């Protein structure tokens, strides 16, 4: 700018005083601008300081409020601490009582453990004795089962024997009933005659008479009853009015054998009381009543 003013002066511009004045004015203007900038900066700094102070005042108030709250909390904690201390004393007393109770319980547990140990030993001894007793009982049971099986086999044999005896008894009863009926039938003379004839027909005497009949021909036959309470049946055979045989057949089952036997025989009829024939010999050499 000075160079420009110099050029203007050389070219007939304003005088140097004006130029200097203008220069000074320009310097002042610059200074004023600088001052304005400084004032603006100062105002900004003041505003910031005021804002910071206001913020600091608010922070202080917040800190004071926090302090008051902390003091109140401290008082509460002190009160709570005193309560805790009292509770701690009570807890310590309770703990002491509990420790004594635990010691007492430990003693009881030790006694119970001792009793349980003794009970376990007694139980083991009882189990051992029970096993031995069970073993003895098992042996006795096996022996008893063996005896029972033997008795059962014996019982089965006895039952079979009893069954056989019952069968025999029934047979004997049936035979006795039949014999009783037979004896009752033998009370009738005609039935007794017929029973004696049947007994003879099933005996060896019939074979003997048949042998003679094959040689001498058909014989004459007389059948009658002998003497006594239970007389035998008397069967007389005569061949050609010469040879004769007389058989006795006792139908009573109680008579000891022989129940059929040859009573008499001969080759001469002189002196022999002959009865007229009342029976005959039929097929097979069997004797039958009636002519």
UniProtKB/TrEMBL annotation:
Key words, A-Z: Coiled coil
Domain of life: Bacteria
Native organism: Rubrobacter tropicus
Lineage start: Bacteria, Bacillati, Actinomycetota, Rubrobacteria, Rubrobacterales
Residue ranges that the Swiss-Prot or TrEMBL entry lists as coiled coil: 60-175
Protein name according to UniProt: Uncharacterized protein
């Amino acid at each position: 700018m000075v160079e420009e003013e110099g050029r203007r002066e050389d070219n007939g511009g304003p005088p140097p005083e004006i130029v200097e004045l203008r220069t000074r004015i320009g310097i002042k203007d610059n200074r004023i601008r600088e001052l304005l900038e400084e004032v603006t900066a100062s105002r900004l700094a003041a505003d910031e300081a005021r804002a910071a102070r206001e913020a600091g005042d608010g922070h202080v108030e917040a800190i004071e409020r926090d302090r008051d709250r902390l003091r109140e909390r401290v008082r509460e904690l002190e009160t709570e601490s005193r309560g805790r201390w009292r509770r701690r004393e009570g807890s310590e007393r309770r703990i002491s009582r509990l420790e004594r109770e635990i010691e007492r319980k430990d003693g009881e547990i030790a006694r119970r453990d001792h009793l349980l140990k003794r009970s376990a030993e007694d139980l083991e001894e009882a189990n051992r004795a029970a096993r031995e007793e069970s073993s003895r009982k098992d042996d006795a049971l096996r022996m008893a089962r063996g005896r029972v099986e033997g008795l059962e086999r014996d019982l089965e044999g006895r039952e079979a024997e009893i069954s056989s005896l019952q069968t025999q008894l029934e047979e004997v009863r049936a035979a006795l009933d039949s014999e009783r009926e037979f004896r009752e039938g033998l009370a009738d003379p005609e039935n007794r005659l017929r029973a004696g004839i049947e007994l003879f027909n099933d005996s060896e005497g019939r074979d003997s008479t048949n042998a003679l009949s094959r040689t001498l021909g058909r014989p004459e036959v007389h059948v009658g009853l002998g003497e006594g309470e239970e007389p035998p049946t008397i069967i007389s055979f005569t061949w050609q009015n010469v040879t004769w045989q007389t058989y006795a057949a006792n139908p009573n089952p109680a008579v000891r054998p022989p129940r059929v036997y040859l009573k008499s025989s001969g080759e001469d009829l002189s002196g022999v009381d002959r009865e007229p024939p009342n029976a005959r010999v039929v097929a097979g050499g069997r004797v039958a009543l009636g002519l």
